[in-house]
Amino acid sequence: MRLRPIDFIGDLIRAAAAMLALLPWASSVALAQPAPMQESRDALAMLANRVQIEEMISQYYALFRSRSHSDFGAYYIAAGILDANGVVRQGRAAINALYKQIAEPGNIDILVSNVRIAIEGDTAAVDLYWTECISATHSAVPHIVEQGREHDDLVKRDGRWYFKRREVTNDGGLPLALEKVYKQRRVGRVAQATATSGCDRVCLESFARSYFEAMHDHDASSIAGSELTRYTENTVEMKLGQGLWATFEGLGTYGMYAADIESGQIVYMGTIRENGRPGILALRLKLAHGVLQEAEAIVHRQGQEATALEQFGKPEPIWMAPVKPGSKQATRDELFHTAGLYFEGLLAHDGKRVPFSSDCNRIVDGEQDTNNPRDRSFMFGSYNPAELSCTDNLTSPVWSYQHSIEPRRFAVADMERGLVFVMLMFNHPGNVTTADVPGVGKVPMPAVVLRPSTVAIADLFKIENGQIRRLEAVSAALPYLQPDPWSSPSQVAR
Q1: pTM above 0.70, yes or no
Q2: At what angle do helices 34-66 and 8-21 cross, to 10 degrees?
Q3: Which of these, 58, 391, 464, 468, has the minimum number of CB atoms within 10 Å of its CB?
Q4: Distance of CA 300 to the CA centre of its chain
């Protein structure tokens, strides 16, 4: 069965233009008010996409009456997924085979209701309810055999919408054979949608907790869209369910979240337990329409440093505090710019160009390495950069082994709390053996930077009134010049 792409957009716009042309003032309005005209075009395009999606779903369900079992797969992308009550098939041929296997006798009609559609560019999400009716013959009394819900993720390719993933869930009439694989689903994901990410802070944090519960159970299949989620751990691409998923035992006693409602992202920074050992995790999750699209983890597997982080007790309340009443809430770009000045100052050994607050502090891999004379990890004689303020610490020449910090990804902005999450690659060529510190002399570099290496670092900033008050970082050592799999040219160092 061949499906012709439905091109309503051009027809609708041409019809609207023709109607406008009949009005004597139409051309002057179009010239004087270009923005409303563009808004009208956008509205027409959105309407056309909605009509295409509704028509696609109607055609799809009509196949049950026509018994065209070989045609269901044509509505999916090549790697599309059908998850029917926990029975999962991927690929067009496998989906067609499943429908052929479960075909029922009689006249089948499926009634669709309560359709909700959220469209974002060339992606969309759909929630609906369905009711299956069967009658043995055209004169027999029809009866309801099954009823349930459906959540679909769609993509648009070459002018046509396709299923990327369908989740079908029975609320009644579940065949007994499916009891063992049946999964409860979250209801009404599209109904929760805002104009952007579709998830507020409570929703994002709730999803993160569900993610950790799934990790604890070592079951990635319980995460909606897990088969198509892009996942990296310490910059290595892998399937969701591998790596930390196989060893994770639970969260530790120290942890905090940053939520970017605009982009649908949630970040966790804190301690974990992995096969009986403490570690530190920085995790970024990105959702679209309630489905996990991206998961990025930096895992610092040094038990002693994770234990040190937990000795702080809990994160300082300042991290979770909203922007103070009366303070001007920074824009997204302003927050990213302020955080970016930190890296410029670090490379230039000039802390004065960075807007630090007077009470600024920094924690790196569980150790507070500013205003902390007890931290002697980088001490040379009587010189200890860890006892310096944020400004003086960044000015110290001991950081001269940092050759470059690129790429830099300013990934998450928690506008309400003034938090910025940045992913970076610190590159150390290994050829800087000493630093000339004024008044101290030549200070030898620590052994760990005397060989070529790159360090992936996740940084979380607390910014208030344009000043950096707190910074926490989690790192993972990598081979020299290891690429960042998430970077694009627009995300490289600014």
Answers
A1: no
A2: 140
A3: 58
A4: 21
